[in-house]
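Quick sanity check, Integral membrane protein:
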Amino acid sequence: MSVVPRDDSLPPNEDVGPISFSLALALTIFLVITTGLRLWARSANRKLGWDDLTIALAGATAIIRFAFVVLQWKRGNGRHRVYLSDHDYMIINMYGWWGQMLLFISVAFLKVSICLLILRIKDSKVLKCLLHVIMAGVLITNFGVVIILIAECQPIGFWRGKSAVCWPTHIRIYFIYATIAYSVLTDLICSLLPLVVIWNVKIPRRTKISVCCLMGLGLVATGFGVARAASLGISTSDLSWAYCIAGIWSNLELFLGIIAANLALSRSIYVYFLGNGDAQQTLPGSTGRCDPLQSGYLDSNLRGDRFEVPSTMIGSPRRRGSETRSSDSDILLKLGIQKKTEFWWTEDDEGQPQKQSP
């Protein structure tokens, strides 16, 4: 019996496509659950903000990206080029092109959402300037990659091969390297900033530690971003294999980043769904089952002969919670209009008390 000699010039017939699909599926499930709970709790308490809108956009684009992961996997993505037909290889690269655009768009929304969330906790002038600079850089770098992906070939799409006239490949790849480097830097800043911001807010120490730990999960995403950069190369001869591995790191970075941003509000979500009715807010802009207008306090001191009740107020959902309050100011604002009435007691010359009102 003759033995067919093995061609050592060919790469092994391996397939990492199932790993890419299974991991992306698990991450997508966690993303949908955490994002849904966050938006549900915030919406029910009338606390939706721009950070929630941008995280919803990040989640939506990430889910669409997962759909392209599925389409690529069905075509054989994760295998080496030599084991695929020309048509399947072209379709895989086309889906990958869409997936790359969705990746950078989603990352941009994610980073902006994290910055806006930090500003809801504390919005000092210095912090606001710093985070606005970070957000501007995030939008420029990530959408810059999107523009390059669209403009680098005529007609659009590098997957068309010789039928398209394209810029040199290294332009796109080096710009992606620069974007990843900036993304890693912003991950570090946005993960470490809560250590400074939260620690100066007057909330329980246990809450500070838990929030900082959850925001620190962003450092894990930073590590995956570094791994993504290391897996990229300037060679484009075996994209079905190389880009599938890079896509695994990209999905870990993106999906875990969104999940970590949602888990940073896990205490608020827990209070809303499982807490008691008297639960109070732990962070400005956080949620709970309590009335959304119960975020302010009025002085209720009894001074001498003067009786004072809360003044007439109209509550507003936009009212921001105070970071400090006195220990004796425990009358919560109620929904509706409250009236302030003051009385003074005086005595006439005969010692008879008289009631006066304004």
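Posting the structure with no commentary besides this: The mean pLDDT is 75.
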